[in-house]
Amino acid sequence: LAVVLGTIAMLVPVNVDPSLIEFQFPVMLGFLFALWIFMLGGKITRWQSGLFLIGYLAFTASLFIPQFGV
């Protein structure tokens, strides 16, 4: 799949939404960094899981709220 998408991207310019670079990518890197920090202890505790769940719900909501004009 990656080879097909990469080949297509080399042949045809792919438009990337600016919000992906400005908001979504940094948030995903933040979650990745937090996961790495939490895993240094060898396991993820219940409160860390809850923190990830709240973060996931907030991130998902932030993607849909502007579309509905709320």
Can you walk through the features of this model?
The chain is an all-alpha fold. The protein has three helices and no strands. The longest helix has 23 residues, at 46-68.
Give short descriptive properties of this protein.
70 residues, mainly alpha, 79% helix, flat
Count of individual beta strands: 0
Distance between the termini: 36 Å
Largest sheet: none
Our Rg estimate from Cα atoms comes to 17 Å
**What's the helix count?**
3
Query: Averaging pLDDT over every residue, what do you get?
Result: 88
Task: Please identify the structural class as seen in this structure.
Answer: mainly alpha
Summarize the helix and strand pattern as letters: HHH
Strand content bin:
under 5%
Helix content: over 70%
Gross geometry? flat
Low-confidence stretches: none
Please outline the helices and strands.
Elements: H1 2-11, H2 18-39, H3 46-68
Helix pairs in contact: 2-3
